[in-house]
Amino acid sequence: MPKLPRLVVVALAVLMAAVVGLQAVVAERAPQPVSDGNLLYIRSGEFLKRAALSYRSLLADLYWIRTVQHYGGTKRGADQQRRYDLLYPLLDLTTSLDPQFDIVYRFGAIFLSEPFPSGAGQPGQAIALLEKGLVAQPGDWDLAQQIGFIHYWWRRDYAMAAEWFQRAAQMPDAPQWLSGLAAVTLAEGGNFESSRRLWQQVLNDGDAYWLHSQATFRLKQLDALEVMGVLQQRVRRYTERTGSLPKSWNDMIRTGDVRGVPLDPEEHPFVLRPDGTIGLDPKSPINPLPPGAVPRA
Amino acid sequence: MDAIRTEGLTKHFAVGFWRPRPYLALDSLTLHVAAGDVFGFLGPNGAGKTTTLKLLMQLIYPTSGTAEILGRPVGDVQVRRRIGYLPENPYFYDYLTAEELLVYFGGLFGYSSTDSRQRAARLLDEVGIGAERRLQLRKFSKGMLQRVGIAQALVNDPEVVFLDEPMSGLDPLGRRDIRQLILRLRERGCTVFFSSHVLSDAQALCNRVAVLAGGRLAASGALSEILDVHARGWELVIARASDAVLARATAAGVKATPLGDGRYTLDVPVDVAPEQLLTALVEAGAQPVSLSPVQETLEDFFVRQVGAAPKDRGLARD
Amino acid sequence: MTTIARVALSVFRESVRDRILYSIVVFAVLLMAASYLLGQLTAGQDLKIIKDLGLASIATFGLFIAVFIGIGLVWKEVEKRSIYSLLSKPVRRSEFVLGKYCGLVLTLVVNVAVMTIAFYGVMAFLDWRMDPLVGEWPVPPIDPHMLKAIALIVVELMLVTAIALFFSTFSSPFLSAGLTIGLWVIGHFNTDLRNFEAVVDSPAAIWLARVLYYVLPNFAAFDVKAQVVHGQPVAMSYVGLVALYGFAYISLVLTAAVVIFSRRDFK
Lengths: 297, 318, 267
What we know:
The complex is a heterotrimer. Chain A has helices spanning 6-29, 45-51, 56-76, 87-97, 102-113, 123-136, 141-153, 158-169, 177-188, 192-204, 212-242, 249-255, and strands spanning 271-272, 278-279. The longest helix of chain A is centred in the last third of the chain and has 31 residues, at 212-242. By secondary structure, chain A is mostly helical. Helices cover 60% and strands 1% of the residues of chain A. The mean pLDDT of chain A is 79. Chain B has ten helices and 14 strands. Chain B has helices at residues 49-56, 98-108, 113-126, 142-153, 172-187, 199-205, 223-228, 243-251, 274-283, 298-308, and strands at 2-15, 21-34, 38-42, 64-69, 72-73, 83-86, 160-164, 191-196, 208-213, 216-222, 233-239, 255-260, 263-269, 287-294. In chain B, strand 1 and strand 2 (21-34) form a beta hairpin. Chain B is globular and about 70 Å long. Chain B starts with a strand and ends in a 10-residue tail after the last helix. By secondary structure, chain C is mainly α. Chain C has one domain. Chain C has helices at 3-16, 19-41, 46-80, 82-87, 93-129, 146-168, 173-188, 190-199, 203-215, 225-229, 236-262. In chain C, helix 8 (190-199) packs antiparallel against helix 9 (203-215). Chain C starts with a helix and ends in a 5-residue tail after the last helix. Classes of the chains: A mainly alpha, B alpha/beta, C mainly alpha.
């Protein structure tokens, strides 16, 4: 066999370099995908289940990948119109194809509930998804617990939350702390203790490592809210004593109501508003506080 | 200058996918074919004849050794303007007609389309393809394809022609036609190199042969040299053999075998002068039919050579 | 006429006589016509659907032709041994490969041209039928910018053909088809390789994804169909850039094909 002439080797190398170089340039200049490039032609889980034949699990994986891409792409994209419209349909399709796909339920529970821009802001859809999961896996305490969580945190429906936590606690292999949680929620739904417990559980859960930053964030918010409650009390005390609202933290430092400018868990100073309410420094990363969250003592 | 020349031409194939074993298809073939020869390249199936031809056409590459055609190495594209090749079991583009194929090939040599068409017409006449030349090749029988194959090998009036089993697929009339064509080529001074396992054709046409067996050259040389050595006698066939004739024959030490109908084959030993015997028998009333010398035929020679050739191919055989 | 041109014309002649090719093209043209009927079913969106369907047909049928004829190009000649007599003529192996490629590209271009004419025919019909009082098209039916999308489709098909031809120099049709189509599919998900880095942790996987991102053919870049249908601008400089990328890749693949083919034994 004749040897490969050097000229050919050089030509191949040069062409390869040209290809790689041009690809880099092309990738930069590629046109933004058009908005309805995001079409989902098949929406029926029932249809897809049948059409997938023996490839259901694989197809579920593909849809899961697509779900993640959709979420990531939407989040990174500049388009303000996109509100994760396809998130629920995609999650629904994925779980129809593979009802045991636990991480998908988890993902949906969080990111369907989260308000825009972090999520779709549709806790009802999240609940629907999880309830569908329970039909396939009736003894799965984690799904039930997640439903409770959504009722608790996003809907502030403490009665329903407690009911779901109780239901979860009665399922096989349910952990101990669930029944405690149910009781606390029922008694004092919305207080920091139960909320803190919930998020701490998430932080302790090794499987949901990608929720840990969320959990830490939420715990910091809870800390901040707690401190804000105390500060609110102090402002009231000051007002009762002096008969007027404090104009700044310095006023309160002088009267000894606070020891120094109060800082939130991210070391940003709390803001004392002219009407006497306490708020976060707009620059603080703990923003935004959960909707309707009221600092309570 | 030799028309064709190989020196130590060797080809190993690797057989098998996972652990390829080597198979020695051709072992150090050294061959010289002079210009103008009609050279017969003989051997049983699997001897390596087609491998040799493919190496000469550079359809495959040698493991070692060299090969030259008209003084140039076989890879030289220019030398292909002066040669022609008929592959074994030829197959051509079945959507083309015979005419179109020859015109296409003519174009590849750089002939104008008029010139190509003239050549095509002439060659198709010469190989005996008539009105079928307008049919698509997919409709051709094996014999017709063979003829087209020979025609396409001659499109460029080559100086050297390589034919791999030229008679294969032809009926007796076809073989006679092709034999005559080869003789015409020889008259034109063309060098003809053809491989065959039909020995009678080779015997009739070639002036030199080589015998290949088991990938090795078993013998080569002028036909006259190879076969001359063993003249054994004569065979005389007569008709109207009366008893008197037979008696006269037997007296001369001749063995007579009846063929029926008053005909006899007489095996005349080498020490008896055949002409004198024939005259005597004719005087006795016999009618001569044929007289031919009994020499070693190419077949005998072949069997001797191939039988003696070592079976083992040096390396593991497939 | 050079040897390459002769081989190319011979391939083109073969394709013209190939009934399968006719059926594909006729089917495509019929689809164009049918798309007009389809358009009537969708309230107001008919032009978009017709354009979408038309461009997709050109791309898809072109792909069929490129793959299924491309993979057979070399393999068939070797398998049936018609190549033996051809290579004994003064034809270099490189000329053979390149001639086959050019012949198939010529076939493709002619077929795409036929489909494009049918496509614009349907557009023109629609335009003629449209009552100017009823309304104006947001994007005109007879839009020369669609030719940009079609031009890039042609370059994309030329690249697919080159890849199919490359595989056909050494492997059987089934394998070649699988590999070619596989590469085409992967090439469309090129951008997802980029997104991998955000999702995956292992540095080895990220490195691999990055290498593949640069090396695998980026077919997604040729797809400006959606932009053109919505009337969004596509810069000529972009078209030129992508075409240049395509030609560079084609050259690479063809060189490799010639190298492999030149060193083969034809057993």
